[in-house]
Design goal:
Rossmann fold, single chain, THF_DH/CycHdrlase_NAD-bd_dom, amino-acid biosynthesis, binds the ligand Nc1nc2c(c(=O)[nH]1)N[C@@H](CN(C=O)c1ccc(C(=O)N[C@@H](CCC(=O)O)C(=O)O)cc1)CN2, purine biosynthesis, alpha/beta, oxidoreductase, 297 residues, hydrolase
Length: 297
């Protein structure tokens, strides 16, 4: 019988722990830790995610500072806002919702965030820390994936893991985290030859290709643990729509455990954003000698 790994329940537990940390930090900081949430433009999905992030901040006692900017915002204006937030002592975390409008260089913007406030973990300093196993802020979705895996796996040593997808946000960082646990990791992508044979050998499958139903039942080894990161809105033949993951969920009854879509990885992304904000606030108390540099560059 395949276990369904419940991301909603785990996210609730993680957020409860964050709420406890936040109330202790508020005493030490003299105010609740603050997360600046920057949304440029009006992408409907981003509006939903940002709304949810702000609501969840409130629930755990974090202050959220919203910056909603029009789609016409110039790159220089956005960089100037980031520079202000970097030096604002009331801001402990900065989140710039992606995607940004096409005229703005997202890489430039993410690199401008002070690494110590980079609660998304996308800054090269944090990427470097992750790849060298020296701390830093870890991207939220990969962090959430590891917590989901930890509910069913206690020892990763020697396990074969396959990651499908090579994005900077999910594929590459989750591969680093699995390597850190001493799994044997193969990073693949949509162009990988013989993908089904590679997946068939894996004890752990992290599917983050953004290709609905890509991973078929016969690709999956008996007893494998599957994390489905894909969330694609598809239209059914009757015209209604539904969210579909990268894994053909109904075909993997022989897996040991699988995350559902929705209700798996997605809720953990937001829970880990809150816990990263608490972590950034705690690091700020260590002063400039803390492990993550407080300035960008
Ligand atoms: N700055 C960032 N931008 C984006 C990130 C990110 O981590 N940082 N990730 C995604 C969007 N995202 C958070 O921002 C996100 C996506 C999905 C979910 C989620 O809870 N999904 C639900 C289903 C959602 C629905 O019903 O529509 C689920 O999987 O159960 C949360 C956050 C891109 N941008």
């Amino acid at each position: 019988m395949t276990a369904i790994i419940d991301g909603i329940a785990l996210a609730r537990r993680v957020s409860q722990e964050t709420a406890d940390t936040v109330s202790a930090l508020a005493v030490r900081l003299g105010q609740a830790p603050g997360l600046a949430v920057v949304l440029v433009g009006n992408d409907p999905a981003s509006e939903v995610y940002v709304g949810r992030k702000i609501r969840e901040c409130r629930k755990v006692g974090l202050r959220s500072i919203e910056h909603r900017l029009p789609a016409s915002t110039r790159e220089a204006e956005l960089l100037s806002l980031i520079a202000d937030l970097n030096v604002d002592p009331g801001v402990h975390g900065i989140l710039v919702q992606l995607p940004l409008p096409p005229h703005i260089d997202a890489g430039l913007v993410l690199d401008a965030i002070a690494p110590g406030k980079d609660v998304d973990g996308f800054h090269p300093v944090n990427v470097g820390r992750l790849s060298t196993g020296t701390g830093g802020l870890v991207p939220c979705t990969p962090l959430g994936i590891m917590m989901l895996l930890d509910t069913v796996i206690s020892d990763y040593r020697g396990l074969d893991a396959v990651v499908i997808g090579k994005s900077n946000i999910v594929g590459k960082p989750v591969a680093m985290l699995l390597l850190e646990r001493e799994a044997t990791v193969t990073v693949t992508h949509i162009e990988t030859r013989g993908l089904s044979e590679i997946v068939r050998k894996a004890d752990i499958v992290v599917a983050a290709a953004g290709s609905p139903g890509l991973v078929k039942g016969f690709w999956v080894k008996e007893g494998a643990v599957i994390i489905d990161v894909g969330i694609t809105r598809v239209t059914r033949p009757d015209g209604t729509s539904a969210l579909k993951g990268d894994v053909a969920f109904d075909e993997v009854q022989h897996a040991r455990a699988v995350t559902p879509v929705p209700g798996g990885v997605g809720p953990m992304t937001i829970a880990c954003l809150l816990s990263n904000t608490a972590k950034a606030a705690a690091l700020s108390l260590e002063g400039p000698g803390g492990r993550i540099a407080s300035s960008a560059g």
